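Section 5: illustrative case.
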């Protein structure tokens, strides 16, 4: 209010001032209006709060909320579904795109390319789970992926963990992307049970584990088994070579963050590894990045 009185006083003196003083007062008037506008904007649209992980958040909406409201923002309650594009992604009516933490379902066909076996069934199953329900979102360590999708555990309004339900029904793999690994061990158990029962995607031969040197391994998400025949190291990563055309890579930064301090890549030499993750391509070589120890099981000989 005081700022408005100052602006009014400056405007009153403008007509009777000399040209030089008038120019100075006009600048002062413009600066006062700008400051007033910015202060009003920030006061009306920004509050700061710290979540349970100690991360500070800057949100729109007015004054800082009390503890109950902060919990509401932290878990994002009572959302409506707008669209389900595939088995592990949800679009909400507020415009948010949600990627379910800890699971990966077969890819839907795009641009005249056929979808992966089980893709449409996984999407329909997720839609069936969410029909006539609202959801809340629970988070892990990171809230967004590189595509700016929100990473969340989706909880139905009756308390059902939707991510876990998809794995239990067999319509997805466990996808391990640190640091969001809070529920991965329980999710792995659900996947093993579904795989053993041969339900969902596990009924399709295309989703069986690939063996290095025997099966063709394309780009994308796979479960892979192979023997480490040599180890390559450089400043940034460690390479576990399973053949001339397939390598498992470990980022030294990820090893320091998630593996035991006693870990040495040579301890896996001549051992069989069962891995899960995203396979990419570099030249003629297929590369699977190993970011977390939960992605791998180690066997001294080939598992029967």
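Designed sequence:
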């Amino acid at each position: 209010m005081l700022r408005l009185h100052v602006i009014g006083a400056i405007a009153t003196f403008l007509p009777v001032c000399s040209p030089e003083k008038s120019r100075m007062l006009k600048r002062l008037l413009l600066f006062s209006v700008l400051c007033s506008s910015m202060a009003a904007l920030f006061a009306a649209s920004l509050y700061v709060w710290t979540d349970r992980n100690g991360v500070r958040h800057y949100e729109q909406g007015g004054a800082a909320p009390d503890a109950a409201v902060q919990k509401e923002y932290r878990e994002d309650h009572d959302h409506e579904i707008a669209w389900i594009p595939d088995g592990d992604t949800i679009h909400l009516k507020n415009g948010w795109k949600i990627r379910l933490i800890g699971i990966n379902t077969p890819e839907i066909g795009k641009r005249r390319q056929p979808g992966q076996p089980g893709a449409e069934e996984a999407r329909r199953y997720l839609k069936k789970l969410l029909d006539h329900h609202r959801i809340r979102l629970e988070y892990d360590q990171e809230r967004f992926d590189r595509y700016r999708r929100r990473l969340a555990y989706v909880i139905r309004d009756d308390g059902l963990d939707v991510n876990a339900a998809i794995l239990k029904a067999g319509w997805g793999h466990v996808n391990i992307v640190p640091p969001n690994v809070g529920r991965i061990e329980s999710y792995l158990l659900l996947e093993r049970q579904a795989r053993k029962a041969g339900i969902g995607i596990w009924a399709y031969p295309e989703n069986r584990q690939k063996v290095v040197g025997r099966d063709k391994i394309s780009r994308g998400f796979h479960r892979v088994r192979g023997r480490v025949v040599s180890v390559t190291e450089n400043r940034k990563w460690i390479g576990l070579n399973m053949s001339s055309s397939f390598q498992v890579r470990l980022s030294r930064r990820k090893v320091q963050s998630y593996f035991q301090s006693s870990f040495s890549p040579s301890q896996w030499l001549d051992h069989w590894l069962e891995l899960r993750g995203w396979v990419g391509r570099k030249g003629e070589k297929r590369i699977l990045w190993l970011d977390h120890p939960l992605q791998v099981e180690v066997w001294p000989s080939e598992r029967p």
